[in-house]
Amino acid sequence: MAAGIKDKVAVIGMGCSKFGERWDAGPEELMVEAYLEAMKDAGIEPTQLDAAWFSTHVDEMGTGKGGTPLSMALRLPNIAVTRVENFCASGSEAFRGAVYAVAAGAADIALAVGVEKLKDTGYGGLPVANPGTLAPQVMPNGSAPGNFAQLASAYRAKHGVSKDELKRAIAHVSVKSHANGAKNPKAHLQKAVTEEQVLNAPMIAEPLGLFDCCGVSDGAAAAIVTTPEIARSLGKHDLVMVKALQLSVSNGYESQYNQWDGSYFHTARIAAKKAYREAGIERPREQISMMEVHDCFSITELVTMEDLFISEEGQGWRDVMDGFYDADGGVPCQIDGGLKCFGHPIGASGLRMLYEMYLQLQGRAGERQLADPVFGMTHNLGGSPSTNVCSVAIVGREGA
Amino acid sequence: MVGITAWGAYAPRLRLSRKAAATANAWVAPNLMGKARGERTMANWDEDALTMAVEAARDALGPGDDRGHIDALYFASTTAPFTDRLNAGIVSAALTLEKSLSAADITGSQRCGLTALSQALTTVQGGAAKSVLVVAGEHRKARAASAQELDFGDGAAAFVVGGDDTVADFLGHGCTTDDFVDHFRGSGEEFDYSWEERWIRDEGISKLAPPAIKRALEAAGVEAGQVAHFCFPSTFNGMATSLAKKLGIPAEAVRDNLAAVMGEAGSAHSLVMLAHALEQAAAGDIIVVAQFGAGAEALVFRATENIGRRPERGVTGSLADRKEEINYLKFLFFNGLVEWEKGMRAEKDNKTALTTLYRNEDMILGLVGGRCTETGVVQFPRTRISVAPNNPALDTQEPYKFADRKAKVLTYSADYLTFSMAPPNHYGMVDFEGGGRIYVDITDVEPGDVDTGLAVKMAFRIKEVDEKRGFTRYFWKAVPDRASAAAPHAQAAE
Q: Taking a C-beta distance cutoff of 8 angstroms, is the pair A289, A374 a contact?
């Protein structure tokens, strides 16, 4: 196995725009907002940037398929800009590109920016993506909630959980995230909700109701990375280090081979195992201080607790009900509100997750600050349960 | 002797209550309350003449993989989805018939179903083909608040015609061709324009049908009094009985035209009635089937000792698998008779890449996947590199047909967000007996019908309609295998 990325790259600046229905801003303004915060945080000039990675998913929103939208919006000094896209895990992909460039010595300081402008479609929910020419002739006429709702049916069947029990457990997932989001001034949704409200919300895709689905938001997030040596030369200390970066991608095992049972993410389990190995983590339930996972839907978060080996298989729903993932629980999860409440501007989400981990590790998370976190994990998923890409990243304190 | 070797039928599951439809329209058409009895078959939004014909053909052919014996195919309909694209070619692809097949669409009158069947019989008699598949399907449109709306029904029937091992021998054929315009539908028009019923009955059917039937009986060498089953569709009360009397056919031979339970399925209806007669005939029974249209056409058969060799579903099974629909508005929506708010999600462009369709023809239209000849692993779709994680063998896959294999629901959801003509859209992963799985739409269901482990079978359906370009896209969907689920109870009852 490769030596891995552990402790080779430090994060020295991060920024995140206000997420939400940003009627006032196009993708360019959102990128500038996140970028300026990150640059101020890093304390560097644009001329110090060697290369940039730019992630966005929904090209119909006018940001384009190339690197120019980022370079033009930020007026970058004609440096390399690579546009990356990996479904909803695109933001993590931009981060990987920047981190690997620094680790390889190809760049001293690299920038990653993710953005999505979703609220220019005229309707709620994600824009209908261009599916190519074959998929629309054979694939079900579905939506993201319908695809992820499939997990619930299989999870119930496999673990003998009743419809009511599971509905209540996923409701708690959302109640917890709303409680966290209420403490986040940048979050799209900043209102706490009750379990009653969640259970009685209109059905979107059985069994997912309105509050089981994450916000469809506009937003951008940015990260600036460099080597620990350069970071120190810039006067930085108590560095936030990259500990692991893993990505696992479906190859058809789930969707075309009769073994996967539909109740979990095959890729997440692979990426998580590799990430723990890369970061040197042996007991994740004890060692991981906090997590931001891809809670596009409440059921996604619930099964992910098992896929990341924090909860035992079939026990995730009990841990959720026990409050293990609440802000005051064993492993606080979605402490910033998650996709659920911070919002999910697709290309930005992976970086937004890292933003919270970064703030927490630096003790700058304000009202949401957790006591003494050491390792923060992000899990960023794209696609659907049967065909997806799954990124797992771990960041942590220097020396951890 | 040349004759019918197999038959099949299909009727959509939904049955529109005529009382519900007539009551909804009573304010504008109170006279229709006289027809407010019984029910008519109602195609789901994703069914048309062609999909129903495919289902009937599958019933006739049975689930076997080998359909190489079919060397000609006639598709009859006056409501075919394409005017210039061989509809029979789509049927052929859906049934994975041989490419060497002769195929034709037969249309132009309400008797075209019988024309197709007589052409098939003649073709086999002449030695030009050994085994001919005849399919007829109709999805008739009528204006809201019309009598036709209540009289019509949707459905299909299919026959295999051959020279050996027949279930009914072909004895004779008769025809009258006359440009008697009882109704017409101009090119590109959606609805029929009809003349006065009394004229049609007295000057048309009563005068034009008997000569054709007489000629058929003469050709068969059969006396009218010997007829045991007389199949003659008509929406006029007592029409078949009146013809039978005129011809000397025993009154008890006149068959139920299924008006009360199905309605009249246009050019397919005489074939539906023939199929129904075969399901109830005894060996030796003489069956006469005729239909009016631009004259009339008639065929005479005699049931053989094989008559007990019935299809799995047939007309009997189709009629038994029913669900009453009392929402008349749903009927209007499904038939495109209401301009309704579909929402922005319905604005997606459904243009079909014809190159992609042809390149993947057996996958899309035939539901053909692959089977690795080294490992036996079955998968959908067929790919160059096998999906087997422990043995991704290269170029080892042979075609493998999924359409007739039983499956079970592994995962599902009922989606209220995505655009659907019949929300919520159900879809999920289905696992097939013998291997393979497909993530696929589930149709003919309502909330609560689907759960993990539900037994399903595959049905050929409309995937999408590209209204902008007039193209109908077809694929397969899962439907609950209700017959299979009900089987243990049926046995218990016996």
A: yes
